[in-house]
Amino acid sequence: MTRSGFDVADKTFSGEERLANLLALSRGLFGSLRTLVQHVRTYNDLIEDEIGENRAAAEYLSRSQRTVARALSWLDAFEAGVSGSLDLEKIDLKPLLEGVVQRCRRIAPRELDMEIDPGPDPTIVEAAVFQLQDVLLEMLEWTIERLPEGQAAVRVRVAHCPLSGPDLALVRSPCAAGLYAAVTMGAEAAPFSLRQCRAFWEALVEVPVRDADTDLGLLHAYGVLRGHGGDLFFEAEGSLPCLTLVLPMEPKRKEMQVEPHLEDDSLYGSETILLVDDEDMIWDVIIDMLQELGYSVILAGNGLEAVEIYRENPGLIDLVMLDMVMPELDGHGAFFKLREIDPEVKVLLSSGYVSEEEARDVLEAGAVGFLQKPYRMVDLARRIRAIFGSSG
Fold first, then answer.
1. In this structure, are 341 and 366 located in the same domain?
2. d(CA 118, CA 170)
3. ω before 122 within 30° of 0 (cis)?
4. What is the extent of the structural domain holding 59?
5. Do residues 224 and 245 make contact, with C-beta atoms less than 8 angstroms apart?
6. What local confidence, expressed as pLDDT, does residue 390 receive?
7. Which CATH number is 110's domain given?
8. Banded pLDDT at 318 (limits 50, 70, 90)
9. Closest-CA residue to 274 (of 241, 233, 228, 305)
10. Which of 219, 273, 278, 319 stands 20 to 30 A from 191 (CA)?
11. CATH number, domain at 300?
């Protein structure tokens, strides 16, 4: 798969991504620790009834209770301090999930029959797109890696589920009651039912420790979901792996991709954009957003394909969104070939592995801008309008 475990020191992460990953891991660690400490408090309460007149035991219990109370006060303060710190925007979850499934089909170490049931249309959630993409991929990989030998079928099911306060309390979930998008992954992936699930922290404690990286990866994913107001559950019964991610969802499509305080008209356009990127997990989300805003979008999977498309459509492409790191022909080479075809071509560069400074020669040669991945969809929309606005 793409990685063997969680590694916040991965050199491919930018400083901003590393901080975001550390924050997500902290959420997961502290959220789980808080629940575990609450369990210790419950055990203390049960023990108190059994101590009787044993003064030494009563003193030890009193110290334990004071320790638990202090630990909970710290954890509550931490959770309050990191709440609401993610920069979220409205997206349709299903295109993102479809890209993740396609990616897993290609990189899985064995032949898999992967099926996606997209559920009702649309499924609008508020998300940090690139961060959520990584968690969906990580959880699907986790499910695939735990399939028994000979099991080749994996199903991903999306459903819209109203979750009630009593049901959430039953599994000790911190989520607020409301409408949720439930993404279930597993060999069977039966319809999601909260009453048939175990809480994330409960399943994690009961599973024997295999390696620290695996646990940290799960805690990181859990922290990302908590930052989105969601949660992670495991199926309570059954020998085959099955998990469900839940995210609060918007019941209507209005204001998709656009923050409420922005004027919608300022982000709309009618131009044609050539999107050049070999990272197909995010394709559908970007295309969906751009089409929502009125743009026509053409897709190219590498630099050679982009140059050929541009050559065959003279005067019809208004902007090229060009990733810098691609096989066959990278963004650097593709840019200069596009300039040979059309010296006035508008090219917006982007990359998660190359910095703006490393792309300086391309920018000085005439590229109209650079977007560092991960970026917010609304920031992309603003940048595109600025490019066309500045051209007259």
1. yes
2. 28
3. yes
4. 15-82
5. no
6. 44
7. 3.30.565.10
8. very high
9. 305
10. 219
11. 3.40.50.2300
